[in-house]
## 1
Amino acid sequence: MDSTLRDIGFKLDRGERLNAGDGIALFECNDLLGIGRLAQSVRTRLHGKRVHYSVNLHLNPTNICVTRCSFCAFSRSSDDPDAYTLSIDEAETRIARAVERWGINEVHMVGGHNPALGLDYYTELFRRVASRFPEVFIKALSAPEVHDLASRSGLSIKETLERLKKSGLGGMPGGGAEILAAEVRKQICPQKISGEEWLKVHETAHGLGIPTNATMLYGHVENYADRVDHMMRIRTLQDETHGFRSFVPFPYCRPGLNAQDRAGNGATSVTMSSGFTDLKVLSIARLLLDNIPHLKVHWPATDFKFALAALSFGADDIGGTNLHERVMREAGSLAPAGLSSGDLVRCIREADYEPFLADSSFELR
């Protein structure tokens, strides 16, 4: 094993916490199998051979978004020919069909900053779903979406989240984090909320008993220090709130298809991350984020075969069936548009792990 990894391994054996310098050293190390072994030892200690999965539907009520982040291939302007907004009835019908056809236990609901959709739209939709399908966990609205709703409603973040929770919101995804460093955000999402504001929304959600995920979008203009800083800031908040359930890193997907590149403004030096990098990021996240219980591999951003390999590099959560996932597919992902629960269970077992049905609360329901 690489000498750097031996020293880090000794720290882990002594129960010492890794620091930012250790994180940089891990990214600079090319011993992927050594890093993976360390991460897998942590994963095994926490979860044994258990692999968590959900039967989930992705529902995007709208693709209209005024922020138009440069890396996003999903968002549209209101006058684009393929822009859309679902009515509450249409959204409810899609969820009902998914319950009937696939027996989903979770709906993952994100869209964009659409000025035509206010807080009342979401509270009414959540009320209908929670009343009609109490078995379905509602994971919805990224931190930037919540911030946008609060701003347009004239409410505080806390008041907005209280109303959403009362209506049936069970948890929040981790979207919108991208890279928390200000200089990176200026380049890739200048109109989105700051990293500090993203953290504040999640801190507020945790204070209200709303569990959330945290994400990291890597492989664009950030460097190793930015990635480590991102993870350390999330770890610091978790020390205070204990509200993050899972960390979900995913790569910048298919350069050339997003809004920035379609407009001819893309950085041509940006290329798709390799499987080597993707496995390294996952493993390092498992080692640095010692206080976040679950590490999720979001297979629509890579592919399902990669996700199965990731289970041996620190990941314990393979996500869900991801039915009707659109955000990554419109960014060029070649992963399937969804899998059956039977496919998930079979593949987990073939990889010599034990499938465990859960939702994003990771509580038995």
## 2
Amino acid sequence: MTLSVCIIVKDEQDVIGRCLNCASKFADEIVVVDTGSSDGTVAEVKKYTDKVFFFKWCDDFSAARNFAFDKASGELLMWLDADDVVTDENCEKILNLKNAFSDYDMAVLPYAAAFDGVQPTFVYNRERIFRSSKNYRFSGAVHEAIVPCGRILYSDAVIYHKKVKENEPMRNLRILQKLISSGVQLDERQKFYYGRELLFNKMYKESIAVLEDFMQGDGWRVNKEEACLNLYQAYTFLGRKRRAFGWLLHALTLNVPNSRTCCILGEHFMENGDSDSAIYWYEAALGVSDDGKSGAFVNRDYCGFIPCMQLCVLYDRLGNYAKANAFNERAGKFKPDNVNYLNNKKYFEQLGIRGKIND
């Protein structure tokens, strides 16, 4: 099956060549839509494809992405951002995916969006490749998405989001507030992201109002679970710890606890001097399987490194130095060059304690 890779760009001359070089390894067609570049982006794009189109920016990412899909002719449509990178190994996996679409309508791929060196630490699944005959469409002015439906293939072909510059400050918040002021009623998903944008911009009271309203609606369960953690953050920043803890506990009623929720609970009990409860939740974090298929955001540090380091501290406080050292060694398997791990290692060596925890 033929695959069209569709990308929207604006002033991306520093990264677009890197992205297009990757895409050319698996794409039968590359479609690029420019939304108003004033640098050399278009000239760079034309080195890779003649399918270049122009779209008047209207503060709507879905509109631009759907326009790009409309210009594509492939049997399969795939989207990328200008600062995305695909390794050769993952390019090969995407090539193999073409043959799999005899049985599927869309493919969901892991999206690595933050890194510790070269290792991805923040990964979540995104709908990525679509059968064009199914007429899938993006929705949402910002944080645009296609609702997963039909026959879905989950692939392990990872897309790496390698940002080299920050987005326009408050861009997403501005777009959402412009929609609201024009009389548009945000759907549940956009309401969720509006609450998060308010939180990120330290507008805690406003964020709480929006997210608590979102929790009363019929939004996705995975977004509600994340909203509980966001409400925990907002109330904590306002010094309302009892209310914050209530939302943290509410997250446990929505789903099997994820590793981040377990670690936040561990941190709460650790700060309150309850070592036994803290140990319980950090060890629970190590037993969680965050496979990402739910669509939830997954910070891999919460799955291994963070709980191991905290368990090292807790067992050290309890005087169980052998077990503390064992968890430090386990943390070192995740990040062997981490300064805290190496300092702990010296500390335990000075105590004459060595040895590693069993896997």
